[in-house]
Amino acid sequence: MATVDEHMADSAGIELRRPIRKEILDLFWEVAEHQDKRRLDAVKRLIGELKKTQDEYNASGENVPPYSPEIGYALNRLVHGLASSRKVARQGFSTALCELLHEVPAIPVEDVLQLIKKELQVAREERGAMFGELFGYLAVVQSGRLTDSPSETVVSVFKSLHGLRKHKPYLQHIGAQAIAQMFQQLSEETFTQHLYPHIREELQNGWSTCAPETLFLLLKVQQNFPGVVDKTFLKKHWGHKEIFRKENLESLGQVIMASATAHPNTHAVCVLILTRICKDKVHFPVFWDKIVDKTLCSASHERKLLAFKFLEHALPLLDAEHISQAMSPSLLKMLINNLVYPNSFHSAAAKQLCQYLARFVKSCSEADRQLAVLMALLHKPSTIHFDSVTKTQTVASIVGGLNAEAVLRYTAWLKKVFLTGTDSDEEVKEGSIESHRRWASNQLVHVVKNPSLTRTEQWLLDTTKFLFLHAFFKIKKPIAGDVVCDRSPAFELSQESSKLAAQHFNSVLSTLGTMPSFKQDGPKHALPGTRSNGDFWVYSLVQFADSLLNDTDHFEPLVQFPEEMMESWNVMLRNVEAMRKKTAKGCNVSESFQLLTLNLGIQMFTDADQVEEVLEEIQTCYEKATEKRRKSLKKGEEDEPHWVEVVVEILLSLLSRPSHLLRTVVDNVFRAVCPQLTRKGLQLILDVLGPKTEGDEEGHVMVEDLLTDEEEDGEDAEENEEDEEKIKLKPNGDLGSEDESDSDDDEEEEVQDVDEEFKAKIKEALGKAAAPHDDNDDNDDLSSTASGESDLSDSAMMKLDESLSKIFRTQRKSTKATKKEAKKLMTDFKQRVTDLLDIFLRKQPSNPLVLELVEPLLRIVQDSLRKSEEHGLAEKVAGLYRNKLCKIKDYPVLGESDSEELHAVLSNIVQVAYMAPSVYLVSLVSAGCMFLLRVLRGKTSLAEPSPVKTRSKRKKEKQAEDKSTGPEDPALKTGHIDVQKVVELYKSALENFMTRRDSHIHAVLFEDLVQHFPVLGWQLAEQLTAYITTGVQIYRRTQACHLLLRLMNTHQKPPDSQQWAAFVSGLSEKVGEVLHGVSQGVTEAKPKFLQEVLRTLQALIKAVEGDCKMLNDQLVDAVQHFSQQEVATRSSVITGLCKNCLKLMGHSTNLPTGKKGKKRKVSSDRQAPEDQSEETPSKKTKNSKQTSPDEVNLSITVNNNGHEASDAMKQEKHKMKQNKSDKRNKIALENVKSSNVGQVLENKAAKKKQKFTKVRNKPQSVSQN
């Protein structure tokens, strides 16, 4: 926001008697905002504030001037801002001025006019000033204040506007509009006496010198003052009593062409002409044909744009008949050309017009007008493939805006196109029939699937019946009066059209199967896809199919139904009726079997042989599922599979088929039967997803069929020609020798077919060199002899080799492509099967079987990550595993007998982490472990809130609990968890992580345990403490500190006080050992590791809650001596942590401040002093120079507990370092002297040495003191 001084600077030196409130001043900046909404909101708030000041001013009793000082300031600033060149500032200020004049009648219009002349007429020739003056007068006119103003004021405004529009051509249009708006506020007498004399001459010139602004003013005068411009006036000066006559069309066209100067806007006169001409049904067709089609559509680019604008303005004013005329062939051709070519001049305007057509259709309530726009785009000179040709969604958007009546009529037209093979009454072209039928069928599907349309139940059913009829039946004789069967195709449907109709029927039926129920009252079905009467959509279609099968006089099925097949159909219908009766009694299982049976019944028209057997199995399963419980099983029934296992096998076989309809049915049925799912049934699903082993059952034929090509390894790209000649391709993609044979007769036939084709190619390549073939063995010798005796030249042999090589390469490529496609099909099938597990987890989260999924899903992810083609499957299964399975809140309640099995699963999945290729898989292992531990612990009072959001709350609850009841019994926190087993499991993993450099385990496995189960985490504390110094790498030791830090941040201490005391003592001792080793140069000093050590120490000191006696006695000295080391002083983070630790332990923190500013990479990667090379003395000197004597002169308070020996050792070590440093400096100086740098550099080196010696001697004097 601007300051008051800035506002005053913008006010052009206006003197005010009192300061303006900053709230008002800030609004002037918002009035010039680019966004329309914010700008208009600022104008509204500004006017409200100014009205308040006016009310206060009126209440004060002052009346000179008649408005408040704030309004006076606003008037000056608004008028002055009209000349601003800032974007949209002029619009915002003119709007504010107009609203202010309208809302505050106390403002004299004369004062505003004087301000306009004073501020804006000074620089009359400036473009901004002229626009500002014009906008100022326009604001006065639009405020409506001229109605009550004296005639002198009205005349002054009119003259000013008239003079401006005559002064510059670019002011003509807006000036004429402002004058036309004045006419609405004046009486005819005022206009005739004061304004008309100034424009009489312009209006009387007629067509000879008519400009667009002249015709616009004439029409406005005629509209507002009909007594002035009457028929006599028009007859005398314009040739006819009416402007809009056939004789004047040419003149109107010239005016419209001249109005293109307002490009890209539409001139106001064009809108007036369209408004008048669209109401004239007689002259509109002639006007549109002559002016738009023949003039604008063939003119310049600016005038072609007018044709698009004319259509936009005309559509809301036209009826259906004239809309068809307005969307003329010339206009549509121009529209399509600009859409097809994106770089065309009017491409953007054409897209804008298409968007407007969709908005117009959606806002229109008349079906005739909606269909007129749609049909214009689908008929010649356009095309039914408008969207695909123009690469837009224009037709689809328009169809989405149709009302219910228009949808019914459009659907009827699509059916007509499908039956006739054409979209018009012209002669049908043979090549276009299939194209039209394909498009019409596809459009019917889109209409049914479009959720934005108002879909009625009967319309959906009729459309689906239409597709089913022409997909599977042939009409012998139409049935009059039937909506679906009243007309037969004009040309017999081809096999391709029937197949396409079948595909579209399945797609529509799949959509209906997932559609919410139309039933409004009463109990609804548990499954979707039902009508208002409670029946399934597929049941109505099965009834329709049965009526077609029984009406042999009118219909003939494309697939013949023999007596056996017809009997199976009738049995299916009887079974469905029995299921419907049980469903009516409330049997949900019966409902799912009914849905499955009906959909399989429909599939009899496409695959009857396989469906019949499956229907029998379903009926058997249904009988077992609905029979009453028996006391004992008959002999032999114990070995029979459970009915739900058979259903699962059936669902898996259906899922393997490439049909979206069947997938929808499978999902719906599985939702209903998953409560009865058994362990074996679940294992059937997992067997599909899991890696194939030799022990797989023979019954899983549909899985093995898909895996046939996947099991075989690809052949090498380069092989010897001798091997190639021995290879023969089997139908399943295997490569074998000619001597191999198969016991299956069918496979032998297929192999023989492929071999014959392969032999034919080889024989063709050999040409005359090919030996004659005969089955007799005796002839083989003759053939070989003949072949051997044939003489071929070297060039012929080379060509022959090339031909044979090409054939074998093509054969190998075909084999690889087949295998690749088989792998892709298998992966897609597995992903569909994964959806069943998703349904099971969502519907049955508390089912104990969900625990059976933990290890298998993890193994599936592990196996899929190894195969590049299954990475998508791995991602999907991992998402299901992590986000659904491991985050179940209503998990199953575990009994004591099941805990052993769950512990075994826990151990198995932890073993996966030992060979995990990345941290991603280890994180999945950790998520599964946390889920299993939650299940083992049970649903106790110990919740699992977010450690960040409720940390303070848990701390308060813990403190209150400690005061009242003491520590909680650990058994309540562990439930059925075998603490010893789990701890040993994690200890083994931790040992592997900390002691093996090639370990695949990552720290996330232990972080989650520490965070979510601190009771178990404390069992690892002793090991973690030891690994601070014994870890195999500095990274592992850093992770040990990090895990201990997270463990202490849980604010839960171990229940045993002795264990806590031992932990505090051991950890403080380890920290002291690390810090002392760094001080002595023994321990590797990585800044990140030291930071974690100090953070762990800080958390430990806080955890003991002031009882520092529990800490190691040497800890304070270790921290103090460490803080003096270079590795500590050069890092502000380490220095701060040292201060905090000493402060928490109650000791002085007068330590040197670490280096601030930009972090240097060398600080984290610096070698230990003993590892540094002696060839870098200058670098050492530079670092030493940065430490001032004042920083080294420390005041340290230490406990004099007999550390003289330690001080002596430090002094001795310091002397050794000093001697080593002097030696380095000496070498460096010798190198400098030997170079040609000169005496100046030598002197600088000597000074650096002096400062370096002074700095390094200072700590020794401090320690001696």
Descriptive tags:
65% helix, two-stranded antiparallel sheet, disordered C terminus, 1265 residues, disordered N terminus, two-stranded antiparallel ribbon, flat
Structure in words:
By secondary structure, the chain is an all-alpha fold. Helix content is 65%, strand content 1%. It has 59 helices and four strands. The strands form two sheets. A two-stranded antiparallel sheet has the order 1-2. The protein has a two-stranded antiparallel sheet with strand order 3-4. Strand 3 and strand 4 (735-736) form a beta hairpin. Helix 36 packs antiparallel against helix 38. The two termini are 62 Å apart. Residues 1-15, 693-754, 774-790, 941-949, 961-972, 1154-1209, 1228-1242 and 1251-1265 have low confidence and may be disordered.
Which structural class fits the helix and strand makeup? mainly alpha
Q: Mean of the pLDDT scores?
A: 78
Counting DSSP E segments of at least 2 residues, the number of strands comes to: 4
User: Whole-number radius of gyration?
Assistant: 46 Å
Please report the distance between the alpha carbons of the first and last residues.
62 Å
**Counting H and I runs of at least 4 residues, what is the number of helices?**
59
Helical content (DSSP H or I, runs of 4+): 55-70%
Order of adjacent strands in the largest pleated sheet:
1-2
Report the major sheet.
Answer: 2 strands, antiparallel
Query: Ranges with pLDDT <50 over ≥5 residues?
Result: 1-15, 693-754, 774-790, 941-949, 961-972, 1154-1209, 1228-1242, 1251-1265
**What is the percentage of strand-forming residues?**
under 5%
Shape: flat
Keywords: Nucleus
Biased composition (Polar residues): 1184-1203
Family: Belongs to the MYBBP1A family.
GO cellular component, one term: nucleolus
